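Task: fold both queries, return tokens.
Query 1:
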Amino acid sequence: MTEQPKIANSAVRWPDGTLRSPETGLALRAAGPHALTDGETRWPLVEGIPFLRAGREELRDVALGALDRGDERAALVELLRDQDDWAPGPPPDREGIEQLLDGEPTFREAMGLLGFGPVADYFAYRLSDPTYLAGLALLQAHWRRPRASFELACGVGHYSRELARQGVETAAGDVVFAKLWLARRYVAPTTRLVCFDAAAPFPLAEGSADLVLCHDAFYFLENKAHAASELMRVAGAEGTVLVGHVHNAAARNFSSGSPLTAAGYAGLFAEPLLYDDAELTRDLLEGADPRARDLAELSQSAAVCLVTGGTGEPGNAVPDLALPPPGTPLRPNPLYEDGHGDPAVLRRRWPSGRYEAEYAPASGYLPEELRVPRETLRRAAEGAAGSDAEVDRLARRRLLLDLPERW
């Protein structure tokens, strides 16, 4: 059996009193090494990730029972099987999760063992999809030198990873424990993570983050008014709230969720600025400044973005989020197969028909084929980003990516 590393870095643990119980609103404190309590109810704490999901009392008690027996692994297996209401299939079997914990799988292999199905493609190729780029453009346009961020429905933590590299103290939450576990292991190891349901009171204090974001998820939430109120509460009077890629009920979408119209979303937030999602993608690729739109201009937009709050001034040096930090090693986008020879012939291969149908129409910046000298790929792999114009050009077009290890 391969011993899994323990989360020893205290920076990723939640200090006592930071989180609140979703049931009572009281501050949570450590109750031993593997539980939190508000004095009335205990909640599991596994690999540094609190499980505060409301409505899962039976699972909570099973996990706590395993932890009380000293069997953290058994608690982890049960939590990794928990799913959200949109899961495409049955929970992963325990044997597959045991295999996951006993081995050293790649990120893609881990998602397969966790039964992610088509969602695995979404996370694996997220760094170059058009909706992700729109979110980066939104962050860049409203950069206010954030000190601390909180990301709702963070998935496996792609945005938190980017923010952490910009020196932001990151925190993030999702309703699915397995996604947070993957974030910790593969994508955003320095981010504080918490598992909770957005339909319940958020377990964070008012004003605890000066940047609060939710991307490509808000339209799925049933009680959007509650979620909007909680996002603004966590941001406080001076924080910024960014809600990216929300599907417009007045337009056709590949996967609609439970959308509102652009006006419906705008009515939930305090005097928001509004953007067209597709325009933001183009703005990031072209280095253009995004332009806010009025509701009439967005009536037929497939997806829109909203920003509210934010009283601070932009920093002297707003980061260019289209490019990785200088010196970052880069690899070819995994959407491309590398043929033999020099120059390398990179051919795009969509991972599935479903993925192609959803993302290909808006991914014109990803050519079907390109030829890249091997020397360019070598320089990129050795960290030429920021000092090599050709490497940076390919990185901006998302043809070279700064993939986490074991991708």
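Query 1 returned. Query 2:
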Amino acid sequence: MAGKELAFHIVDVFAESKFAGNQLAVVLNAGNLTTSEMQHIAAEFHYSETTFITGKAKSFRIRIFTPKGELPFAGHPTLGTAFVIQQYIIRKNVPRVSLSLKVGEIPVDFNYDSKPPVLWMKQNEPKFGRKFDSGTMSKVLGIDKSEIDTKFPVHEVSTGIPLIMVPLNSLKSLKRCKVDSKAYFELVAKTWAKSILVFSSAPYKKNSDLSVRVFAEYYGIVEDPATGSGNGCLAAYLCKYRYLGSSEVAVSVDQGYEIGRPSKLYLKASETDRIDVSVGGRVFDVAQGSLKAK
């Protein structure tokens, strides 16, 4: 990036107001940056993720970095980056923005009926991995084995990046979770999924349906405020196991309350010959600036 300044925008994703949801930094015109430079910039912002718009073909090419490494897909970076593209590159209302990620093409649709609009991304077809016993997960989460809802399995799911889904019996149990780092790293050394999503059928707020927490220390994120990829996996899980009594899923989810970043995500899923998953949320513009050249 020598000899040039790069514009960036900071947005709050899956928020109902500014200074909530999950923070995201989006760097524009980043095609000349090396992978190492992107990683250093992401570590400097130190948000859950930072995205880099590296070019445009049929869709906008995007790379996603946590403070510790690159991801093939993540939910709130996808929505937040699509919002920045619509606002600052396209500069007009369009029904869809398509992003080219390492997992493939991800379309983001804009619903302008509400203000600010709700953005929806259709995620990849889910894949299901290993199941785990409740005893193993209770040790990692620092809760009693009885607090895990054994009517449903603890199961790895991916719609682009895998997470372990853990159903809990109560909101109280969800609030009590405190990850044991030693047990966590011993577990993820042997698993496909490196992140854990715990959920309860009791929401934080009366106008929501479920509550969620996500732990991803492997990626340098002790707890994530709002996880679009993880909630896409949750939507697929709810559909597959008829958790709500039906394969049709249309719910709102609370996340981020335990770390002071209240977030709301909207989930949709249905099953015919495959499970289709979409995740939605609002995005708020917070700040913009430029990265100084070397």
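Both queries returned. Flag for query 2: The helical segments are 35-45, 75-90, 134-141, 171-176, 181-188, 228-240.
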